[in-house]
Amino acid sequence: MSGALARKGFRFQDLYLLRRVLREAAKAFARTVDGIIYDQAKFGIEARASAPSSPTWDSVVEYLKNREVIEVKSGTITKADRVAFCKRLRREANVVRNKHIRPVLVIDPSGEEITKWSALATMSACAPSQQSISAEPVRVSSTEDLLNEALWWMCKASEKESGSPPLSETQARAVLANFRLESIAFSELEQSVLETIELLFPNGFSEQLSDLILGWLNHRAIAQETRRFFSLRELLGEMGILRDCAAFSAGTIARW
Description:
Blueprint: H1 3-30, E1 42-48, E2 56-62, E3 66-73, H2 79-96, E4 100-107, H3 115-118, H4 120-125, H5 143-156, H6 159-162, H7 169-176, E5 180-183, H8 186-200, H9 206-221, E6 229-231, H10 232-238, H11 242-246, H12 250-255
């Protein structure tokens, strides 16, 4: 991968997380009448969702009853990308067991065809076929191929190949049934972030503020692992913009 493509990929990843953070801010304001921010979620960047033995994800969003483990891809998703995703899900499911995992894949539709991904959760929730998967699919061109490849790597591949014990097909399907695809173009993602910042911080400096927050996220991504999780209040407080945001009218956010 070229340096330019790598930088674009990291920016796409950080913009997506920033969009999630800003939308949580908007929801928090909409739920209040006095403009006080209440922490509803914790966010992780290049973070482990649970124990030290769990895999590292591009982003994590943790709520009280479930957590989203997120991979963000701005370009074409290769077989190596798909296999890595399945291995991480297998490892995560072995660590957290009965806790609720929501896998999320974020893609730019200009770089990846989305049809086969869109129906993955629905197909995973269907009753398994009588015929057991005996080999990894050679090609992946449909949702069925995608599901069979995922089940192979989550249930059939050896522990040596995958790095963690195999899941039962029931366990794997339960995880995949929670899968969510988010498809958004790079330019649309940038515009969405700027528009939300303008709404939350109506001071005319949305681009500068976006760059500042992205810089803050970038520092967190390479910090010690204990610093890679943060709350909305922590982000705004460390940047010195909590007061600016909290002073904004809750009614305006509710109308948004």
